[in-house]
């Protein structure tokens, strides 16, 4: 995969690296924070994903002779710099949320503390991997929450390889969707790479390849008597697909097997799934699952359920694999310098919302008495205490005092030290379980898909004071 | 890259392959058409891209012993089928538009004629590669058309790796953006893989790593005296960035060099670019380019130009690499069976817009006297003639007669025969030149970014008659 190449980076990272090297700044200890400013999909949270692949990347990064020869060919790099890249590796510390954690705007999700030229190089690749996987895991979680709102339950499977943004986009999406709660994928390569459960039915072309639909259904069931899901809409869902599927279900049962499911891929999914559920139940097949596809999203799923639909498994394709929909498509995560050589740093810019937060910060998460998450607070280290003043990261006028009765936890862990993992990589099952547990601890208003209650991420007094001091110095320097 | 794996496919392609094999259908000659139903971005056209990578994929596809072992582990596949996959390769013919061609809904962009089990396997990977690259090339073309509308001209560079959907998403996007008219990319790996021009400036972190902005600018210019573009907004664009950049421009000139450019990354790009252009011109630096970034898209570019902005180079990131915006994110290309064993096939479904077009079709493109594209017509082979009746693919009631005076060309070529390319792979430069030429031949109304005139793709009488006959037979079978 391309991402293991140190050249998977923006050109300016390399020209700056050479510059740091030339000015003797390259070994200055830098602290960079990775964070986003707005939750995706106009929602209230994100599900953090992609950490383990990002750590794989950091552990494996090195410059091959081919890499150096290509850089040399660009005419921008001096021999002493290219020499210095031989034997280069990432030796930093990474502190991060574990995958599957529910996370919020403005808090550092991952902090790199490393020699400046190491931290600078990895920005592009870290953002690429973490932005996308977090986006897809969040989309999957939103679909799962929508499906589970049905009184009958419902599962999500990822179906989107053919519309995904490149092959790796498909594979990374299948991985991240699983973290967010999808139970499987249709993509075989994703199954192999990550051990994900595979799922599949058959296509319209299968039906068209036989003299008629019933013959096609029988042929498929004969081959996969315990794993057949029949696609109903090649000719006509209710008039042809359904009666033919019922015939095959009876024939399978007579032979000691059970039809696994039927799939709807067009038409009114709420109406059709009700009609089909009733027909299946009446015919004695209450265990046959109804799988639905056709440009699904969390809002389509919610609408199917609101109208009483009886879908058991939602095959979510394009919208999941590309994390589409309003506020989707990309997560705007950034990677900003917070400290260099022990000196806190920030960029001001013309837009206050794009200012960064200086200093080496810790993220504390508070839970109330029943375990529900209450708020997160960033400090320069100390655990927050009741009565302390905290303020909004983008609006200093909004401040409040921390209440009593909260339980505080350090929300992140050191996951890489001297460029090596501090422990074994987590499994995707662990990440998925964490997402499920964290989502259950979200305030209900924050879990809401649209117009959510915005979960509070606040600055401790120390961070706020540091920011105000540095911003003041920068403005003073301007004579403003 | 994952896409070279035959397992980069949906599970059902493999279960169907086994089924075709078991029923002796696998060697039946199948014809599948790849097409889309709606242009992306609510526009009037798409720029076809990704063909050469798709052909690489088809030429290289084979099952390794590892692949077979994984399939065996799934418990779905029989030894005789897995044996048959040893030595399997794609032996079909592919007829397609060349990359960079401007294409429209409902016309077959690529047709696979191959033994059924070969055509079935490749569906997922072909759609993945071609959907995404066509989407991005189209987005790039829209940005290029927007930028070139300025009286001063303007260029597009691709900047989006950090927000792209996976590393391969970034790399494929850089390639496709170049086909659509972008002049370069910031991503080094994309540059290496495809020989694309690389472009870059420096980041805010560079400025923050020095005692002050001027020192940082000087340090960068000293290293890259002929390739320096200075980022102006770390502190304050007009009060700090601009005067410091002017100082460095003068110093460079005194030393026999020229500052290449300045970059804006926040604020009002129209206003700032005018102010900065005036200041640069007044100071004797009319050749210094103004580069702008900050969540650009074709509509933002158009708005900057409409307000008199003076940007020379637009660095388009997220919106280009993820092909975002309304009607973006994914191209809904599909791959549908049109003929099997010489017998035309179609699927009806409940939704007429989702019906497929039967038969082995040829795509003819007509140009009028000045070379402007007039309409495309699908026939079963014959060249269209003036006076013939043609009809709309989705609405049979809309029909007309072909006018005199059109020049007809067969729009596609046989690019693969017996699974091997019929000639050398085209270069990206050729594809980019074709896109430029084709875009210039589009009717102006169709080139319009929003509410375009819909270019006409029509069915010849033979295709329309075939479709009506088969649809009639399918409905008769239903007793409808």
From TrEMBL, chains A, B:
<dbReference type="Pfam" id="PF17767">
    <property type="entry name" value="NAPRTase_N"/>
</dbReference>
<dbReference type="InterPro" id="IPR007229">
    <property type="entry name" value="Nic_PRibTrfase-Fam"/>
</dbReference>
<dbReference type="InterPro" id="IPR006405">
    <property type="entry name" value="Nic_PRibTrfase_pncB"/>
</dbReference>
<dbReference type="InterPro" id="IPR041619">
    <property type="entry name" value="NAPRTase_C"/>
</dbReference>
<keyword id="KW-0328">Glycosyltransferase</keyword>
<dbReference type="InterPro" id="IPR041525">
    <property type="entry name" value="N/Namide_PRibTrfase"/>
</dbReference>
<feature type="domain" description="Nicotinate phosphoribosyltransferase N-terminal">
    <location>
        <begin position="7"/>
        <end position="131"/>
    </location>
</feature>
<dbReference type="GO" id="GO:0047280">
    <property type="term" value="F:nicotinamide phosphoribosyltransferase activity"/>
</dbReference>
<feature type="domain" description="Nicotinate/nicotinamide phosphoribosyltransferase">
    <location>
        <begin position="155"/>
        <end position="271"/>
    </location>
</feature>
<keyword id="KW-0597">Phosphoprotein</keyword>
<dbReference type="Pfam" id="PF04095">
    <property type="entry name" value="NAPRTase"/>
</dbReference>
<comment type="function">
    <text>Catalyzes the first step in the biosynthesis of NAD from nicotinic acid, the ATP-dependent synthesis of beta-nicotinate D-ribonucleotide from nicotinate and 5-phospho-D-ribose 1-phosphate.</text>
</comment>
<dbReference type="GO" id="GO:0005829">
    <property type="term" value="C:cytosol"/>
</dbReference>
<protein>
    <recommendedName>
        <fullName>Nicotinate phosphoribosyltransferase</fullName>
        <ecNumber>6.3.4.21</ecNumber>
    </recommendedName>
</protein>
<comment type="pathway">
    <text>Cofactor biosynthesis; NAD(+) biosynthesis; nicotinate D-ribonucleotide from nicotinate: step 1/1.</text>
</comment>
<comment type="similarity">
    <text>Belongs to the NAPRTase family.</text>
</comment>
<dbReference type="GO" id="GO:0004516">
    <property type="term" value="F:nicotinate phosphoribosyltransferase activity"/>
</dbReference>
<dbReference type="InterPro" id="IPR013785">
    <property type="entry name" value="Aldolase_TIM"/>
</dbReference>
<dbReference type="InterPro" id="IPR036068">
    <property type="entry name" value="Nicotinate_pribotase-like_C"/>
</dbReference>
<dbReference type="Pfam" id="PF17956">
    <property type="entry name" value="NAPRTase_C"/>
</dbReference>
<keyword id="KW-0436">Ligase</keyword>
<feature type="domain" description="Nicotinate phosphoribosyltransferase C-terminal">
    <location>
        <begin position="360"/>
        <end position="466"/>
    </location>
</feature>
<keyword id="KW-0662">Pyridine nucleotide biosynthesis</keyword>
<keyword id="KW-0808">Transferase</keyword>
<dbReference type="InterPro" id="IPR040727">
    <property type="entry name" value="NAPRTase_N"/>
</dbReference>
<dbReference type="GO" id="GO:0034355">
    <property type="term" value="P:NAD+ biosynthetic process via the salvage pathway"/>
</dbReference>
